Structure prediction request, 548 residues.
Amino acid sequence: MNCIRKSWTLDPVAQNKIEEMSNNQPSFYVTTPIFYVNDAPHIGHAYTEVAADVLARWHRARGEDSFLLTGTDEHGEKVLRTAEANNVSAQGWTDKLVHDAWLPLLETIDIDNQDFIRTTEARHEQNVQKFMQKLYDTGFIYQGSFKGAYCVGCEEYKNKGDLVDGTGEYEGQEVCAIHSKPVEQLEENNYFFKLSQFQQPLLDFFEQNPNFIQPESARNEVVSFVSRGLDDLSISRSKEKFDWGIDIPWDDSHITYVWFDALLNYITAIGYGSDEAKFEKYWPATTQIVGKDILRFHAVIWPAMLMAAELSPPKQIFGHGWLLVGGEKMSKSKLTGIAPNQITDIFGSDAFRYYFMKAIAFGSDGSFSWEDLAARYQSELANGFGNLASRTIAMVNKYFEGEIPSPKDYSDADKNVIAVAQKAVCDSDAAMQQVAINEAIAAIWTLVDELNNYITVQEPWALAKDEANRDRLATVLFVACEGLRGLSVLLSPITPKATAKLWAALTEGKLGELADQILQDAGEWGQLDKGIKVSELEVLFPRIETEK
Ligand code: MSP
Prediction:
């Protein structure tokens, strides 16, 4: 597959070609936004990371070549000002934050990323310059003058409509609707990208690729925004104002606008300008996960940049909702940020991942509450899943000296469990393809609920009292173990630590590694019929004493 087009003609044939190339893409490439290093991460950032990681792990479990990219956005005025306020160089500050806060976040919430890109790395800076030069040489960049508002918090030029009346100390001033702080008035000679030229090509692209922007509400918002017309975009800042960015290659009195620099991480990390084979393997990205506050950058500016450079836009931009506190977007600048380890220190990383993916419909806003987290932990993870696993294994130990018994004739109740398991595999997979992560987990949970119900009704402890029921007892415990095997595979992308423990206790290494199981085969019944000896299973979700 070749995703680099010879020319950008903006006609339907070319659009179809992009789609055709996209459909032939065999790998799964998913990205998170790259995070500003002006501060340490909070659970809103971790939410984006976990969602992308769950998708990447899911597709890897399907046997796809799955690549998760994340990283840090290190240039710009916001980061520079923070460094200055802390009396350190910008590079010193970003190095410290990356090593002390952002890389450790990946451990805290158990992210299995294939790369981590920093925008201060040479592999990024050099290829940003190549990209810029290409757009300049092909006439998509020109010099002009900019006069208008800029929010350093958003690192974004603002129109009148983006501002609201300030309150409290900012009463009487216009402030950024997201940060509730006054914007700056800029007047600079800058370089501009001819974004206005891409209005129609973008609208055509949206129409021909209905899944490009998801969810539907995000798509509608972007389509109506682009329909109203696009202004050209200032893509440089004068070094007279500040100097923390990538030099404009043909004019070293300017640096690249931080968003133009940052967006390009998605291609510089996979070899744009340096490793064509790798780039062709992974680009266009399968899905790019972003918060809804940065949707326009990704669904408007980013595809236009790529079109200008004769590259395919990504296949999908998915805009998720916000974690809210008191009805507002949770943020450090508003002092509502909660550090991820405040949660994982108590509940563990699996519970963090499960809770945020299950409790909030992916694409909608959701409020975090300690009470809801603690209640779901206890009822869904500890009682629902953990207990099911521990009592099933305990009964195999108790009644069959640890050896998973072979099943005899299947009753209707047994067949029903098998049917539920197979449906859970299909439904969860279908939901994950739609990035409906919470629906996928709900589909998996039908199997947790069914197994709990099955054990309650079948009463293996009662069957065990009469030797005449030995065959029936064997079948019931075999069915329960098989259900757990399926659950280990299906839940491994969401709760990797707990499922690894369960897999080890349940399979004695006889079915290979959990990571090598093929997700689509999780419902294939009878895999444990190999005289396997279960081992002790430590409590997967221990009881938590918390006053929170
Ligand atoms: N650096 C830019 C992104 C550049 S991508 C080319 C940026 N960084 S950020 O650190 O401010 O935000 C990164 C991500 O965290 C965004 O997707 C943002 O939506 C997400 N979140 C920040 N606060 C959030 C919540 N309260 N809730 C959910 N996600 C939130 O923007």
Notes: The chain has 19 helices and 19 strands. Residues 33-36, 44-45, 47-48, 73, 262-263, 290-291, 293-294, 322-323, 329-331 surround 5'-O-[(L-methionyl)-sulphamoyl]adenosine (CB under 6 Å). The first strand starts at residue 27 and ends at 31.
